């Protein structure tokens, strides 16, 4: 077996260090999972449990640039090609919302309670009242209703 010169050993060490740094950067950048998709600064500002879909339909991805929190409302979007779904979340208001009285929305049982699913014009919508969080999911007219329903049905509190 051939011995490495000091120069070769130094280069090999530098290459290993660069590869380690690249792997670490890739893990940080791509390593987020669905259990904690939001930045720590957003998480620290939100004063209610964040509800996030556990089962995201194939092809849909969180648009990280869309995540915003202002005036007590958290907003984020999922995209699949041209299809768009916007989530808005806020603390559950203290008075009774009477969601069952909204015409055109059908109640569907979920793990969090009842979701009200239907259309607003041509766009599919879902309204979910969790124990402490109110969620509105609205799709554009190209987003299938069943995708909105699936997202609503799989909402869970982030840990």
What tags apply to this protein structure?
159 residues; alpha+beta; 7-stranded antiparallel sheet; two-stranded antiparallel ribbon; 25% helix; elongated
Please characterize this protein's 3D structure.
With 159 residues, the chain is of the alpha+beta class. The protein is 25% helix and 38% strand. The strands form 2 sheets. The protein has a 7-stranded antiparallel sheet, covered by helices on one side. Mean pLDDT is 83; it is low at 23-29.
User: What are the secondary-structure elements, in order, as H or E?
Assistant: HHEEEEEEEEHE
Query: What portion of residues belong to β-strands?
Result: 35-45%
Count of individual beta strands: 9
- Total helical segments: 3
Rg: 22 Å
Low-pLDDT stretches are 23-29
Arithmetic mean of pLDDT: 83
Structural category is alpha+beta
Fraction of residues in helices?
Answer: 25-40%
- Sheet having the most strands: 7 strands, antiparallel
Shape: elongated
Question: What topology, given as strand order, has the largest sheet?
Answer: 2-3-4-8-7-6-5
Quote the distance from N terminus to C terminus: 53 Å
Q: Strands, helices and their partners?
A:
Elements: H1 6-30, H2 40-45, E1 51-53, E2 61-70, E3 73-80, E4 83-91, E5 105-110, E6 113-120, E7 123-129, E8 133-139, H3 145-153, E9 155-157
Antiparallel strand pairs: 1-9, 2-3, 3-4, 4-8, 5-6, 6-7, 7-8
In short:
With 159 residues, the protein is α+β, with helices and mostly antiparallel strands. The chain contains three helices and nine strands, in the order H-H-E-E-E-E-E-E-E-E-H-E.
